[in-house]
Amino acid sequence: MAPHNKKRIILSDETGIMSRVSQSPIVHHTKKAATNAAFVTKKLLNSTGKAAWIAGTTFLILVVPLIIEMDREQQFNELELQQASLLGTPSVSK
């Protein structure tokens, strides 16, 4: 059997391809840009969540009671019209 003489790329060597590529300014800038983008995205999602919480609770506190009161008023007006028609009183249109 003849010995196989194959060249191997040593990845941990100081002069290896991976060490040269990882020291490249392009890789450095790309990593920095990706880190910055992740940071901005995290902050944006956090702020969006806070804004959604504020909008949701404000809606529940201010708008829902208004909708309920308007529905009650509409039901009351319909009941008055129904009673007026049963009693024979002429209805007044607004």
Give structural notes.
Belongs to the Tom22 family. It is found in: Mitochondrion outer membrane. This protein is mainly α and 94 residues long. It has a domain at 55-87. Helix content is 73%, strand content 0%. It contains two helices and no strands. It has helices at 17-22, 25-87. The protein is rod-shaped and about 110 Å long. The mean pLDDT is 83.
Mean pLDDT: 83
Question: How far apart, in Å, are the first and last alpha carbons?
Answer: 108 Å
Please state the overall shape, judged from the principal axes of the Cα atoms.
rod-shaped
| Rg measurement, Å | 37 Å
Strand count, sense and barrel status of the largest sheet are: none
For the secondary structure, the number of strands is 0
Strand content: under 5%
Could you say which structural class the secondary elements and strand pairing correspond to?
mainly alpha
Report low-confidence residues grouped into runs of 5 or more: none
- Give the helix level as a range of percent: over 70%
**Helix count?**
2
Order of helices and strands: HH
Pfam families: Tom22
Membrane topology: Single-pass membrane protein
Keywords: Membrane, Mitochondrion, Mitochondrion outer membrane, Protein transport, Receptor, Translocation, Transmembrane, Transmembrane helix, Transport
Subcellular location: Mitochondrion outer membrane
Short description:
This protein is mainly α and 94 residues long.
Protein topology:
Blueprint: H1 17-22, H2 25-87
Membrane topology: Single-pass membrane protein
Pfam family, one: Tom22
InterPro entries: Tom22 (IPR005683), Tom22_pln (IPR017411)
